[in-house]
Write a structure and sequence with these properties.
single chain, about 230 residues, alpha+beta, Helix Hairpins, Thrombin, subunit H, 2 domains, about 25% helix, globular
Length: about 230
Amino acid sequence: MGVNRRNYYRILHVQPEAPAQVITASYRTMMSKLRLHPDLGGDTAGAALINEAYAVLSDPAKRAGYDMQQRRPKARGRNRPDSAAAAASPKADVSRQCPFCRASKPADIHAMSRCHRCESPLAPPPARPLKRNELIGQRTVPRMSRSDNVTLVAGWRTPARTAQLRDLSITGVSVITDIKIERQQVIRLIGPLFDVLAIVVGCRGYGPRLEVHASLLHAIFMRPKGVVVSVKT
């Protein structure tokens, strides 16, 4: 598929941080309620562009690649002395943004730093003992299982929901929720002893609900030893 220079988010009338549910709802509204589908009288070329945008933004992997491409400076841009360095390291801009709301991070980040826009934690979790990603059934450190209710925010500007904490470590977290969560989606979880941002790495059915596994991106642990996590050395 050729690169379309139009902004897919603008085509679907959603914000870049919009969760998957909002993108799907906007697409369906445009095609059916606004009658932009060709079968309902819409323009074929316009509908094709809407379908192209939705095909990319509804697929987590394609969306991540598209977002990275959008963040890269234009190759022919003027007055960009750092464009070569940015192109060589396309993730540099992301590292300077809050992964939840995309606001700029402060230059200095300490253990209790929070985003000025969404109040999410900005400090990385404690040093990981093993260089391995958090996967279902593969715990990188021992965990203390919990059954507390926690606050789940599935996306920037989305309503907070209550979820059940399954377990928590310094590398990952699992919760039970009744809302659909997509892989690679960044979520925020707030409990009495912690506040974390995590990226979803897996989901599976848990009765009528969903068990969500996520790897920590940023975290604030109010009492990190002896209560929330248990790590053997």
